[in-house]
Amino acid sequence: MTSxxxxxxxxxxxxxxxxxxxxxxxxxSLTDSQSAWAAATGFTGAPxxxxxxxGEDGRPAGALFGMGTAAKxxxxxxxxxxxxxxxxxxxxxxxxxxxxxxxEEAALGWYLSAYRxxxxxxxxxxxARLVLPAGVEADxxxxxxxxxxxxxxxxNTPASDMGPEELETAFLALAAEFGAKAKVxxxxxxxxxxxxxxxxxxxxxxxxxxxLELRWGTEGPRxxxxxxxxxxxxxxxxxKPASSMGLMKKDxxxxxxxxxxxxxxxxxxxxVQLRVLVPAVENAVSGNAMRPQDILKxxxxxxxxxxxxxxxxxxxxxxxxxxxxxxxxxxxxxxxxLTGAARVAVGPDLAPFxxxxxxxxxxxxxxxxxxxxxxxRMPFWDGYEPLIEPGIADLDxxxxxxxxxxxxxxxxxxxxxxxxxxxxxxxxxxxxxxxAPGRPKGGVGQGARALxxxxxxxxxx
Length: 461
Description:
- Keywords: Aminopeptidase, Hydrolase, Manganese, Protease.
- This is Leucyl aminopeptidase family protein.
- About 50% of the residues are buried.
- This protein starts with 12 loop residues before the first strand and ends with a helix.
- About 30% of the residues lie in helices and about 20% in strands.
- The protein has helices at about 30-40, 70-75, 80-85, 100-115, 140-155, 165-175, 190, 195-200, 240-245, 255-270, 315-325, 340-345, 360-370, 405-415, 450-460, and strands at about 15-20, 50-55, 60-70, 90-95, 130, 180-185, 210-215, 220-225, 230-235, 275-285, 295, 305, 330-335, 350-355, 375-380, 395, 425, 430, 440-445.
- The protein has 15 helices and 19 strands.
- The protein folds into two domains: about 15-135, Leucine Aminopeptidase, subunit E, domain 1, CATH 3.40.220; about 145-460, Zn peptidases (Aminopeptidase), CATH 3.40.630.10.
- The longest helix has 19 residues, at about 140-155.
C-alpha cells in the first residue's frame, strides 16, 4: 500500500482549510504578501480550490484548500482528500483545528485517494504526504485503508484473472497473513457436503465452484460474514445482453467487501470470533447449466424453482447462510451485489441494508453517518412474502412482475436464517461510476467501515 503519511515530527508545510468566503479570517495566519497572492489568484474557498502559497525563496510555504459551505459539504464526503492529488510533493500538516471525526476522515480520505489499480498499467503516485492529525491512530487508519484496498483490487481485477480459483488464492493468503484457519470445498465435493445450490450455479463453468471458509479469534461474540463471490455472471441460460454483462467482474463485490472487512477486523485485533464464508462460482453457459423452471433442493431442505438463471446470487448465498445459521452466531451479515432494483431505489452511492432488529439497524445507520460510509435501511416487508412462493416449490428465485426486487431478494435470503436472531443483509453496488474524493472510478467497498464502527455497540454483551 502506498505510503502517504509523513514521519512524526517531520518538518511540514501548513495546509489551511478555508470555508467559502472565509479568506479574510486567515489574515492572522498569512503574511500580507500571501494574502495578496491568494486574492490575486481568485481563491474564494470554493469546494476543492487549491492555492499554493509562495515563500520568500520561491518555494511553497503552505497552501489553502477550499472547503466550500457546510451545505455543499453535505453533498459529498472525504473533502480534504481532494487536496492530496493537487498539492506539490512534500510533507503537509493540517493547520486548521478539526474534531476527532473530522481528523480521522481527513486522514483516511488521504489514504483512500492514494489508491491506484496498477496490475496492468503503471499509474502516477500521490506525492503529497500528510502528517497524521493529532488524536488519529495511525495503525487503525492504515488497517481500514488496507482492507478497502483489498476490496478494490479484487473487484477491479477482470474475471480472466479473478475466477473462483484466484479468489480462493486471495482468500487463503488473507487467512495465512493473520494466522486464521481456512477450509475449501470444491467441485463435486459440494454435493457431498450438502451445498447443492452452490454446485448448481457453478457447475456449468470450466472453473469449479467452491465454498471458502475462514475462522479467526477464540474470544468474544461470534460474528459471521457471508459474501457473494460470483466471479463473473453471464446470466446463465437466461443470458445477459452485452450492455448488462460489461461490469459483471464486480459481481464478487460482496465477497470482496467481507474479505476487506475481515482484514480490518483481524489487523485491529478485535475481540470477536470471526467466521467468513464465500461461495465462489462463475455463472456460465454450457450443456449442464441449470435451466429455467428447474427445481433445486437447498442445504436448508427448502426447494427453489428457478424462474431466472440470472438470479443466481441468492442461490449461492442461501446455502452459505444456511451453514452459518446452524451455529447461531451473535450477528450474521450477508453482503452481495444482488439486485438492479437496489440501484434504482437508492443509486450507486448508498448501501441499502435489511434488518429486523431496530437497535442494530439504528446503530448501523448512525455508524455509517459518523464514518462517511452511508447506509439506508430497507424493509423486510412481510406483505411481499407470497411473491416468493411459486406454488410448485417452496420458493421462487425470481418472482414475476419486477416490483420490489431488492426486497423480495432479501426476503428470499431471510428464509435461510431461522436460528440466528440478528441478521443483516446488504444489497451493495460495489462500484464507483465516476471518480469522487477518496474514491476513484472502479471497485469500491460499501458498508464495511460502517459495520466496523458499529460492532462494539451491536455486539456488546
